[in-house]
Every structure is written in structure tokens, then in C-alpha cells.
Amino acid sequence: MKFDSIKSRLVLITLICVVGIGMLVVSQHYFTQQLIHLNQQRDALLRMNTDLLQMRRHEKDFLLRHDEVYFKRFSEKVVSFNARLQTLVPLFDEYRLPVTDVESLSRSIETYSEKFQQVVSIQRKIGLRFDEGLRREIRVSEARLAASSQMETAALKDTLNQLMLATRNFQITNEARFAAEITELRGLLSVSDNDVAFQNTIAQYKTALNALLEAYILFGVTHNEGLRGEFRQSAHKVENQLKGIDTALQPMIEQQEERVRIYSIGIAVLTSVVLILVLIKSFATFHHAFVNFLTFFYRCKRQYQMIDTRKLGFAELKSLAELANEMVESKRDIESRLARVEAELADKKVS
């Protein structure tokens, strides 16, 4: 198709505008989808952070209130966290990021969950309430010893009372000095009586106290010791790994945003440049043709000036020029015939 007519030029200009706008829309749609996908993954990371905060909250609520409902909520958040974590794997494959980061995070959250389950198991063994587990055994044994007729001596009663007080204080404060006091007083709680039932009660009491101390030591006397310290470290590790993944995603989002900006500006500039060049070329062609027409009509009054159609550019103007040339030829013919007729009339008058 030759773009030598006004119509074809207008079609070309329209086509350039449509193609440019189309390319801009397609690129915007493509990169916007990429950004939406990345931001969805970023949103998943934020939700995973929220899940982790909820887990830490349920963990502390359980340790404070010893209620199984918080362990159930903790487990639900672990399932939600792992489900969101699996959505990150395709993203890491697509952008060739180290999938080991996701795998490491999965192992860390699994370790964190297992450690907390062990803490819950030990707390169940100790007793979630005063009438459960080792707490119940100790209270039952204390009640039996206090009601026994063998506890008649003041020294034995005083030892039992001190031991009971040290046990209560240790369960409340978890301080090592009370644990040492329990160990010391437990050795003093002994009688030489031959009452087998009473001896068994004392043995059961001592065994329960020993199991309580071992459970608390395994559980962690302080926040940074035992299983409590281990699962707290696991939680901090998960937090750091989440931050690492978020740090890895941020440059990709910024890169996509930069690509959107560059492609949008590039397409807009390219379309504008091509369109301006076509407009300039069309304007120059039209201006040149218009000047030729003015010159033609100006000269046509004085001489038989013809228009060179090769200099007009647009096909429509060439057609007008051809008609104008025909008009000039027709005028020349008419004037020639009139001149001959006038000459003949003049000859007849003379004769």
C-alpha cells in the first residue's frame, strides 16, 4: 500500500496511534499482572508474619493459662503458615531464587512446632490444673502424709510444711533456690516406722517431687533454658528467615516496577516520535503542494502554466492538478478558436 494520499496518511497516523496504544496497554497488562503476582506473594509473607505473631501469642497464652485451647489455635496457625509457605515455591522457581530458603523455613517452623508440642506434653505431665498430673499426685501425697498418724513429731511436721511451701514457691517462681530447698528437705523426710503404707506414701511423694523437678528442668526454669529456650530460638529463627525471604522479594518488585516504567516510557516515546515524523512529513508535503497550487493559479492569469503533478505528493492533489491542467489546455484551445474566428471576421469586413 502506497501512502501517497491524504486518506492513506490519515490511516497510517491512526494505525500508529492504535498500535502504540495497544502495545502500551498490553505491556501494562503484562507487567501489572507480574506486579500483582509478586505483591500477592508479599501479602502472603505478611500474612505468614501475622500467623507467626499469632503463634507466639498462643504460645504465651498457653504458658500463662495452661489451657489446651491455645495449643489447638497454635496448631491451626501452623497449618495456615505451611499452606501459605507452599505458595512461595512456584515463585522461587519462576525467578530462579534459592528454593532452599523456603525448605529451610519449612524445617524451622516444623522444629518450632515440635518443640512447642514437647513443651505442651511436659506441661500435661506436670498438670494443666492443680488436680492433674504430678500436681495432683503431690497434693494427694501431701494430704495423706498430713493426715497420717505417723506425722506426730513436730520436726517431721515442720519438714513436711517447709517442703510443701518450697514446692508451691518453686511452681510459682521456678527459682533454682527453691529447687535446691526441695532436694534438701526431701532427704530429711524419712521415718524409721515399719508402716508399709506410710513408707509407700513417702516414697510416692518423693518420686513425684523428683519427677516434678526433672520436668521443670527439662521444661526450662527460665525463658532461655530447656525446651522453652529452644522453641523460642526456633521462633526467632523463623522470624529472621521470613525477613530474609521478604528482603529477597523486594528487589524483584522494584525491578518489575522499573521495567514497567521503562517500557511504558519507551513505547510512549517511540509512538510519539514516529507519529511526529509522519505528521511533519505530511505537513511538509501538504504545504509544498499548496504552494504549487497558489503559484499555478497566480501564473495561470498571465501564461499557460502547467502543474507538475510529481511535486504534489498526495494523490488527491495530483488529481486536482490533472483537472487544472486540462482546464488550462481547454482554455488555450478556446482562446485559439476565438482568435481564428476574430481573424476571419476581420478579413470579411475588409473585403
Describe the structure.
By secondary structure, the chain is mainly α. The protein folds into 3 domains: 6-125 and 225-269, Up-down Bundle (Four Helix Bundle (Hemerythrin (Met), subunit A)), CATH 1.20.120; 133-219; 303-350. Helix content is 84%, strand content 0%. Helix 1 (6-65) packs antiparallel against helix 9, helix 4 runs antiparallel to helix 8 and helix 6 (154-173) runs antiparallel to helix 7. The model has no long low-confidence stretch (mean pLDDT 78).
Blueprint of the fold:
Elements: H1 6-65, H2 68-86, H3 88-94, H4 100-126, H5 133-147, H6 154-173, H7 176-188, H8 196-219, H9 226-300, H10 315-350
In short:
By secondary structure, the chain is mainly α. The protein is 84% helix and 0% strand.
Number of distinct helices: 10
Count of separate structural domains: 3
> How confident overall, as mean pLDDT?
78
Radius of gyration: 49 Å
User: What is the CATH architecture assignment of the largest domain?
Assistant: Up-down Bundle
Q: Write down the overall geometry.
A: rod-shaped
Report the top-level CATH class of the largest domain. Answer: Mainly Alpha
Q: Which residues sit in consecutive blocks of at least 5 with pLDDT less than 50?
A: none
CATH T-level topology of the largest domain: Four Helix Bundle (Hemerythrin (Met), subunit A)
Distance between the termini: 66 Å
How many extended strands?
Answer: 0
Major beta sheet summary:
none
Q: What oligomeric state is this?
A: single chain
Q: Give the helices and strands as they follow along the chain.
A: HHHHHHHHHH
Give the helix/strand class: mainly alpha
Proportion of beta-strand residues = under 5%
Q: How helix-rich are the residues, as a percent range?
A: over 70%
